[in-house]
Amino acid sequence: MPTYPFWQVDAFTRQPLGGNAAAIVFDADDLTDAQMQAIAIEMNLSETAFVMRSSVADFRVRYFTTFGEIPLAGHPTIATFHALAEAGRIRGEGRVRVTQELGIGVLPVEIDLWDDRPQRVIMTPKPPVFLRTYAPEPWTAALGITPDDLLPGYPIQTVSTGTPQIMIPVRSLDVLRRVQASTTALKALRAEGDWFSVHVFTLEALDPAHAAHARHFAPGDNVFEDPVTGSATGNMAAYLFHYGLVDRRIFTVEQGHLMNRPGLVDVELEGTPEAITAVRIAGSAVTVIRGELYL
Q: What is the model's pTM?
């Protein structure tokens, strides 16, 4: 009976049972797509990562939700490369750069290693692309808020750094707390949209030193609410910078606190608001489970 080592890692946190959990399956080269999908369903997390050999990068990684494969994932990238480093499959001292092969190409990942222990993982998705904008009324109805709750003067818009997500800025933490997303309504909107999931955020943070606080909903993938979402944070960071809602290129954002899974995501941008050339997403992680799959 084949066995496969797997870990479960909480990303964007230094505390076990915080942040966002991802499962990582090592040595997955001979698994079929159907097996990987079945394992993702078995793990029942928002994403499961499968690590394989690559001829064009240091690692090939495939990311599956319980509904299917996705091209890029933020918190599973942080979790996967934390696990690879902690397992000794990435070694070095200081900032170590490796590459991952994805369905959308080869992207860099950096790991801060001290005494062979991973301290932080930095991912660089593709440069942002700003896509469709939307009228507010269907969205506020789907989220259980009113048009007056939106941040005035800023569009509801899809942004993509690899995974397209719709950005919805609201006025305050109070509004964010009051959001009651309708899965049925969001699924109907998704059928007509150019986005994968929904990111709702405010410039009001629990810690005034942080730039924003967010919530995330993925109605098409059986994830009612995601605790801390790296890919969407990259898209949100690009939106904030592009529209002048932040005036600095390095900042930290909050997510997950309203779900009792607090997480922090560090952001670094390059370029100008009109032409953002890079978005980096970084965070810490902690391993909570190590085991083996028996297939």
A: 0.94
